């Protein structure tokens, strides 16, 4: 049986409720509606689709009915690089934490082919704006096509570390880094939020060629009067950035040590370009640190 469009609408609504329920969100009707109306099949290419199984590699999905896509699975976008259309439940958790409002401006860094960009566009509405940045031209081009019917979205093919270039209400990052980019913090408006995955690359590549985080943590950063508040969003394992956002050897070793000691649930602030307190820091990097103290303390 292949679902027609009315049947798929029911499947999408059930999927939306399931993704929110998986992460304990019960009262975010705007987010539920975004998951229910955006068609995932429009963003993952034609069948046969390929599903990621993490360290076990990839396998083809047997069905060609789009209904199979409406579950908490990772669908490959660029399997040779380990790039996937990520976990819907994780993004339900993160987008709920971002608390996007109508009319806000968002920079989506590492947009892939645009599925989660489309959800963000739904959340900020026609009066909001979304800048979608993708480094890989092979992903940025279909993202531009997939999002062409959304006038509030602009797609840019470029280095995510350089964007946004204007102040925004939220920066939403979908690849793992060992340090945040200056633009992500310095171009947040007052009250603006940054969500990004902090991670250490696995020394070994996956079954194909992608390198994912060995340790990974989602962080919610908010620009407040006294600096940047921070809190953990739990484990998060994305494909890793290289170049500017990769740490030097000593800093990487310090980040590994921080992950191995635990205590991420006690992080309360991100200190940017200010002297850290070694005894009150979960991690100290070059020009930034994660502290157990509230901003300004």
List the helices and strands and how they pair.
Blueprint: H1 5-22, H2 29-37, E1 50-52, E2 58-60, E3 75-78, E4 83-85, H3 88-98, E5 105-109, H4 115-124, E6 129-134, H5 137-146, E7 153-157, E8 168-173, H6 182-186, E9 188-201, E10 213-224, E11 227-235, H7 249-261, E12 269-272, E13 281-284, E14 288-291
Parallel strand pairs: 5-6, 5-8, 6-7, 8-9
Antiparallel strand pairs: 1-2, 3-4, 9-10, 10-11, 11-12, 12-14, 13-14
Helix pairs in contact: 1-2, 1-3, 2-4
Q: What does this entry look like structurally?
A:
There is one protein chain. With 297 residues, the chain is α/β, with parallel strands linked by helices. It has helices at 5-22, 29-37, 88-98, 115-124, 137-146, 182-186, 249-261; strands at residues 50-52, 58-60, 75-78, 83-85, 105-109, 129-134, 153-157, 168-173, 188-201, 213-224, 227-235, 269-272, 281-284, 288-291. A 10-stranded mixed β-sheet has the order 7-6-5-8-9-10-11-12-14-13. A hairpin with a 3-residue loop joins strand 13 (281-284) and strand 14. The radius of gyration is 19 Å and the shape is globular. The model has no long low-confidence stretch (mean pLDDT 94).
């Amino acid at each position: 049986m292949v679902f027609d469009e009315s049947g798929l609408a029911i499947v999408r609504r059930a999927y939306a409720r399931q993704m929110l329920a998986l992460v304990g969100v019960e009262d975010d009707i705007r987010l539920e509606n975004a998951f229910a109306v955006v068609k995932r099949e429009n963003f993952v290419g034609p069948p046969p689709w390929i599903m990621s199984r993490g360290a076990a590699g990839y396998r083809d999905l047997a069905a060609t009915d789009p209904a199979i896509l409406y579950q908490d699975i990772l669908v490959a976008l660029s399997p040779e690089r380990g790039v996937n259309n990520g976990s819907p439940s994780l993004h339900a958790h993160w987008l709920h934490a971002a608390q996007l409002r109508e009319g806000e401006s968002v920079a989506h860094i590492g947009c892939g082919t645009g599925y989660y960009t489309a959800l963000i566009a739904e959340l900020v509405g026609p009066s909001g704006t979304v800048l979608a940045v993708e480094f890989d031209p092979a992903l940025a081009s279909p993202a531009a096509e997939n999002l062409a019917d959304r006038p509030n979205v602009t797609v840019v093919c470029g280095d995510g570390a350089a964007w946004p270039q204007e102040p925004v209400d939220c920066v939403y990052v979908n690849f793992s880094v060992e340090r945040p980019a200056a633009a992500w913090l310095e171009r947040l408006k007052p009250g603006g939020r940054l969500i990004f995955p902090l991670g250490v690359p696995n020394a070994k590549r996956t079954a194909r060629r992608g390198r994912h985080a060995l340790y990974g943590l989602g962080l919610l950063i908010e620009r407040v009067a006294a600096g940047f508040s921070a809190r953990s969003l739990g484990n998060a394992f994305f494909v890793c950035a290289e170049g500017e956002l990769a740490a030097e050897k000593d800093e990487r070793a310090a980040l590994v040590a921080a992950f191995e000691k635990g205590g991420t649930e006690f992080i309360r602030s991100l200190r940017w370009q200010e002297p850290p307190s070694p005894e009150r820091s979960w991690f100290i990097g070059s020009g930034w640190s994660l502290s157990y103290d509230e901003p300004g303390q």
